[in-house]
Design a protein that fits this description.
This protein has 6 helices and 2 strands; from the N terminus they run αββααααα. Helix 3 runs antiparallel to helix 5. The protein has about 160 residues and is mainly α. Strand 1 and strand 2 form a beta hairpin. A two-stranded antiparallel sheet has the order 1-2. The protein has a domain of about 60 residues.
């Protein structure tokens, strides 16, 4: 995996941990002086709609053939954002019953599982992308590279 992607993932995780450090006494986090409830995540249905639109646009640009359809389907399935599972969040009441060392161990285990799950998902995406790319013609590869480079290029403030 590329170093800049690892850095981005770690920074995202640390930012999430930082938000929890600014929690109120009642346990609700504050962001920009507003309770977390006012900063809702994007609606999953809307995210799915956006993903479907981007996928359809890319498929149209690439002019995916019937022979490439299987690899395309695998690719788009792998690229879908994972569903947020409420089971992944620790139960506050359960955590409050634990001693500090036990709580730290529990949180470490949850972080380790989260990182394992993320790495598995990224590996699945990588393999699906490589499989699709192998089926593309030279012209399709150029288009795909241009689309992919725009996604991961210098927009993050890091120039070449």
């Amino acid at each position: 995996m590329k170093t800049h992607l690892k850095t981005l993932i770690i920074a995202t995780l640390l930012a999430g941990a930082g938000v929890s450090a600014f929690a109120n006494k009642d346990g609700s986090a504050m962001m920009d002086g507003k309770p977390r409830a006012e900063h809702r995540r994007m609606d999953p249905a809307k995210m799915e709609e956006m993903h479907a639109k981007r996928s359809a646009d890319l498929k149209a640009k690439l002019k995916i053939t019937a022979a490439q359809e299987g690899a395309w389907t695998t690719f788009t399935a792998a690229m879908k954002p994972p569903a947020r599972d409420a089971q992944q969040r620790p139960d506050r009441a359960e955590l409050e019953k634990l001693s500090t060392p036990e709580r730290l161990d529990k949180m470490r285990a949850l972080r380790t599982q989260h990182m394992t799950d993320m790495n598995t998902a990224m590996e699945k995406r990588d393999q699906a992308t490589k499989a699709l790319y192998a089926t593309l013609s030279a012209d399709q590869k150029k288009l795909f590279d241009a689309q992919h480079a725009g996604k991961h290029g210098s927009r993050g403030g890091r120039g070449k």
